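Predict structure. Chain length: 194.
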Amino acid sequence: MLFEHLGRPIKFHLVNVSDKEKLELSRLITANGGVVSENSLIKFTIRNPHVGNEEVYHVNFIHNCVKQNKILDITKYRHGAMGIGCPMSQFLRGSTSCMVDSDASEARPDLLLRSRKNNFRTWEKQKMVNYLIENNLISQARGNRVWKRMIDKGLLKHRTFHSLNNHFRKYMLPNIHLYKMDSKSLAKFLRLKM
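Prediction complete.
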C-alpha cells in the first residue's frame, strides 16, 4: 500500500479542515494504507495557517501522492515553517533530510528505506534502540562494548561495532525522540545526550 512502511501505516494529522474535507481525506488516506491520527509528526491542512515553528503541509501532497502512486517530495507542500527537516523522512528513515529527489521520475522503494548519508535502515535503528532497552544498556551506549555484544549475539552482524556506535552517537541520539519506546527509556536516552 502507498501509505504503509514496513507493514505499518503512515499517520497523518489533519488540522484546520472542515468535517467534509476531513471525511474525504480520511477515506483517501485509509484506502491507501494510512491512518488519520492526532499522534503524528506530519500535519496537513487546506489553508495556509499561522503555524509559527510548526511543520504543516498542504493536503495536496496526499492527493498528488495518490494520483501518481508514489511518495513525493513533501517539502514542496510546506506552509511557512522553520525547516526542521522532512517529517516524512523522519517517519520512514529516522533522518531529517528529504529522501525523494523531486526531479526523479520514479520513487524507488529501496531509496525510501535508505539515508543518503548512510545506509542504515529504519528497522536496524529500531533494533538498536530495542536492544539497548531490553538489555538495560542505555547508559553504556556510547561505548564500543555494547555494540560488540550486540553483534556477538547475532544481531546486525552485517555491521561493524564501530559503525553501530558511530551511527548511534551521530545520527540516532540527536533524534532519539523519534524512536518507539516508553517514557522511562526515553528519559534515560535524553540523559545520555547531556
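Summary: Confidence is low (pLDDT under 50) at residues 81-85, 96-117.
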